[in-house]
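Moderator note: this is an archived Q&A kept for reference. The question asked for a predicted structure of one protein chain; the sequence and the answer are reproduced below.
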Amino acid sequence: MPGEAPGPALRSLRALGRSAARGRPVLGRPRPRPDIAFHPGPTTGRHPHDPCVSPYPRYSSYIRLRQRTLTGRSNPSQHGCGSLLLHFVVMRVLLVQPPDEMEAMLGVGKELVQKYEPLGLLYIASAVRGPGCEVSVVDAHAEGLDAEGLQARIARLRPDIAGFSVLTCSGAMVYHLGRWLKQNLPETTVVFGNIHASVYAEQYLRSGCCDFVVHGEGEEPMRRIADLRAGRCAAGDIPAVSYLKDGSLVRNPPDFYLAPDLSALQPPARDLVDRSLYRVDTLSNQLYTGAGASGTMTVGTSRGCPYKCSFCVVNQTPRFSSPERVVDELEALEQDFGARYVMLVDSLCMQDAGRMLAICAEIRRRGLRLRWGCDARVNCATPELIRAMAAAGCYDLSFGIESGVQRLLDGVRKGIRLEMVRDAVRRVRELSDLRVAGLFMLGLPGETPADSLETIRFAKSLDLDMAQFSICTPYPGSALFETLRARGEIDTGIRPDGSLDVSVWRRYSGYISFTDNDPIWVTAEQTAEGLKGLQRRAQREFYLRPAQILRHIGRVRPGNVLKVLRIAWRGFF
């Protein structure tokens, strides 16, 4: 009503307008002087101060306030009023899945790698974006961008904050990108996260690659880094980050940030990536998963793992999303994105049998038609669970088996028995038509060539659709890596003067036999060439059997036959 006292929202907007008119930065750092423009109304068509023609495209957005908001009048045309345009600052956050070095690390084997949407970054994007904060996601791996292409994209976007997900396969690339960023866009706050960055936090920071390294899950730390940039908190208030202060390394508690309630997280911001990037008809899709040319979408139903396998980098604090939250996300993928196949990307979706049964029941109750797959432990594959999963659209399971030698399984703290493996595979075959893969490792600590041959024999004795034979690689962040580093038995890339030789990380590859490189580490009982030969032999003996050839030959599309032959030649011989 006319003459009515302004409410809190109106008072806040007026205060914002006064700050802008005085040239004060709204988000805590100097900007070009904002302008307030009054445009006589009423207007038709595009407003002359539309955001898309902003004179400050990097910094600005506009709030269009009708005069009624300021005076209480209800009809702008009747009272000859118009629009107040408030030009205010928007923080730009860029989250990057960087280019990797698949060519150097996997050779022709890169053809087998599926492209998944960067789920972790999309969760962070949902946590960070909001009024005054614009978030973009660039998946350079999926787009096929090289370092120069990504640099051009970043230079065009000129973000206030740039966050990079750093795994060992991209660690060297991100090292160079971070140094380029700090030299060419020094005003940008550069943040590294994920396991590899956490292990090498001090080296990255002292090399001038980044301003912060996040330890653990990134939703809350990145939100607080945005608050810091906006002047709403201090660096010491950001949980689980490392940074340099007066030349000294600071690591804020806790050691690792873990989201306490997964069901309370905002759904991942899938609208920020181009879905067509992931509709790639890979050989893995053709031969094993239910994805085909539709591509694979991903859902995480849990985080962490209570088991203590020495080769694994997953943290040991398990947390679970509720069945309702999981199926809500699956339903949204089917209805809003047309998903036909979804991969449950966590390690523990089957760990809590009651929860998994509830998920399966809810999928059926809602009538979802999509297919899905997951990783599994053999000790979780109960008859009741297998039947329920098959009835709810499960298409494939991948069992982490690792070895056919019990002594080696015990040595890496796998926590399973060979009898459990045989029983689980047989049970799946008897109770369902699910496709089953076995994941094996060669070259485990203490493994002899004879042990490797026994693992190959064991894999062939199981009724598996697919088998992967990787070389045991002590990835940074695993207990095995820490043990070998303490003994001085692995090249970490850290030199005596504290500098980094990032080229070393290219040898951290479980599929090294597809390349001319040597493994980063070989157990004392074997040689590099011998282990690479055993990996090729495993793949050759498993797949070049009549039953396996007949099982897969009809699934390969004619246009990919030459690709299959090229990969087989490089990987088998």
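Archived answer notes: The chain has 22 helices and 18 strands.
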